[in-house]
Specification:
- The chain is an all-alpha fold.
- The chain has a domain at 26-56.
- Helix content is 50%, strand content 0%.
- The chain has helices at 6-20, 25-56, 71-89.
């Protein structure tokens, strides 16, 4: 916002005096002062409310303590994971009998397509060569 010096304020007051007249100018100043006072009061209330809510906000809970794991338990988990992987890759039970596959038709059963033939010209089409 630009700073208003004394010269600018005098110009503004002269313009206001010419526009509103000497009788309305005190009323205008009074209502302007009341409006500014109300604006400052509401902004101060809003600022206090925001600061109060920021102070009253709960702090996040502390992180859970770190659990120590021994090397033996890690090794045991690794061995059990390898066992599960081995069972998944090489299952103990043989699969059921193989499923029958549908026969593939041979070339003799597939009908051969005829070579494409050009369509005869229609009577309503003009001969493009005649001109």
């Amino acid at each position: 916002m630009p700073n208003l010096g004394p010269a600018e304020l005098i110009v503004i007051l002269i313009v206001a005096l010419v526009v509103f007249g000497p009788r309305k100018l005190p009323e205008l100043g009074k209502s302007l002062g009341a409006g500014l006072r109300e604006f400052r009061k509401s902004t101060q209330g809003l600022r206090e409310e925001l600061e109060g809510s920021m102070k009253a906000a709960p702090t996040p809970p502390a992180p859970a303590p770190v659990q120590t794991i021994s090397a033996q338990s890690v090794a045991a988990q690794s061995v059990s994971a390898q066992g599960v992987a081995a069972q998944t890759i090489h299952p103990a039970a043989a699969p059921d009998a193989p499923q029958p596959v549908a026969p593939v038709p041979s070339q003799s059963l597939i009908p051969q397509a005829a070579a494409p033939q050009p369509a005869p010209p229609r009577k309503d089409e003009a001969d493009p060569g005649a001109g």
